[in-house]
Amino acid sequence: MLADEVASLLDHLGVSPDRRHGTRAVRSPLTGETIAHLEDASSQGVAETVAHAEAAFRQWRSVPPPRRGELVRLLGLELRDAKDVLGRLVTIEAGKIVSEGRGEVQEMIDICDFAVGLSRQLYGLTIASERPNHRMMEQWHPLGPTGVITSFNFPVAVWSWNAALALVCGNPVIWKPSEKTPLTALAVQALFERAAVKAGNIPDGLCTVLIGGRDVGEALVNDPRVPLISATGSTAMGREVGTQLARRFARGILELGGNNASIVCPSANLDLALRAIAFAAIGTAGQRCTTLRRLFVHDSVHDEFVAKLTRVYASVRIGDPLASDEVLVGPLIDEAAFETMQCALAEARAHGARIHGGERVEEKRFPNAYYVRPALVEMPAQTGPVLRETFAPILYVMKYTDLNAAIEQHNAVAHGLSSSIFSTDMREVEKFLSVAGSDCGIVNANIGPSGAEIGGAFGGEKETGGGREAGSDAWKAYMRRATSTVNYGDDLPLAQGVRFDID
Ligand code: NAD
User: Fold this and answer.
1) Best of 183, 235, 237 to mutate for ligand 1, by most ligand atoms within 8 A of CB?
2) Which residues form the Aldehyde dehydrogenase domain (predicted)?
């Protein structure tokens, strides 16, 4: 019984039994069985949580940033201790293979380390003033309670990309996890609370979790006391959240869908490309925002490459990730994901596709879970379902002859998240990376589009939402910038030579 194992994992992680009852059934995609019940937050509960976060903000913003970093350092230590247990819970709740579940927790640890260093580097510029005896500078101040809405497919890492930065920047964090993966959120909250006890003097309400569906997310998005919402999920969700935030002039970090592509050039190292493409297209059962969904292969290597890829697709091991480390593909999240995948394949067929795989497997063993063989779909052209994101393991393969035309096709979709080129010709690589190349937020060479490191800013353009999280200077979105001009002279020269003399 998975429910028993989940109960003991939650005990181990310190999730209070008080939080583990209610009317919301949580199910595991591994078997389809119910593994826990939880209670949704009420609208009053949301309002009270935001009020606590506001009170916490007044204290936390005045704590020196390196001391805020100490809390995040302690959280990183808790995560190290809990890596295997939390990773296993990720596998049970989101269906990822075991090494990816652990990898997700490692990503949390990495961003904590990054944020600890960042806590001593929240600096602004000093800027030359045009006026004598004046100095200009930028200061970065904490912004306020930060709402974090997350998707099911990175149930814990996405929170940590936001929370680690928000906390060192001086903001409380209110988390509305996916309704499909609320248990891992409660587990992370319990680890945070342990770290907070060890740190001491941490205000109540600094980090909180609101369990619930879209209505709870909407209540958070519409609360005027929350100046920043970081929302990860579908483009449809982002369109609604973005509109609501714009109405009240709040800030948003939108991390939405992707329809990511790679180009395989004639000079590519095909063995390397094969491994990279297999991981990017099949890994996480095609349920990463950065999953490879479109592949353009030069006609001189197309047949050889597609034949190799077809063999990989036919042989990759699919099944319950807890049963064996050799399983590389776990289940889809639910029946709706399976139906959406089948619709996309039927539509592709109508557009002239030749399809390898895509069928349901393990149905007898797990009648209530949805395991599928990843689908390799040879398309005559980029039409129909190829133009949109289907959150399932479907890779559309197309032939190309001219790189410029392939890049044009590459960019001719609504999303702009991640991309890559496989080539050993530096002219081709540099073209793809240049202004005339990929229009995505992530542009790689000789690796697949998925599997980003936390050191870089993560996010994408167009209908991916434009937000950036994690490394580089993504922290600036969690703070407010004050530009200050100081006059240390006795005159009052005005900018632009304006004269305003009074008697
Ligand atoms: P989803 O849009 O169904 O749900 C995401 C979250 O938004 C959930 O917590 C949900 O309750 C909440 N939500 C939905 N509608 C809302 C509304 N109107 N107001 C407030 N909250 C609302 O997405 P999903 O199925 O959980 O995740 C898959 C999608 O997420 C894919 O499109 C994938 O590409 C995307 N994704 C993007 C990134 C990224 O960084 N760009 C990362 C992971 C996933």
Assistant:
1) 237
2) 22-481
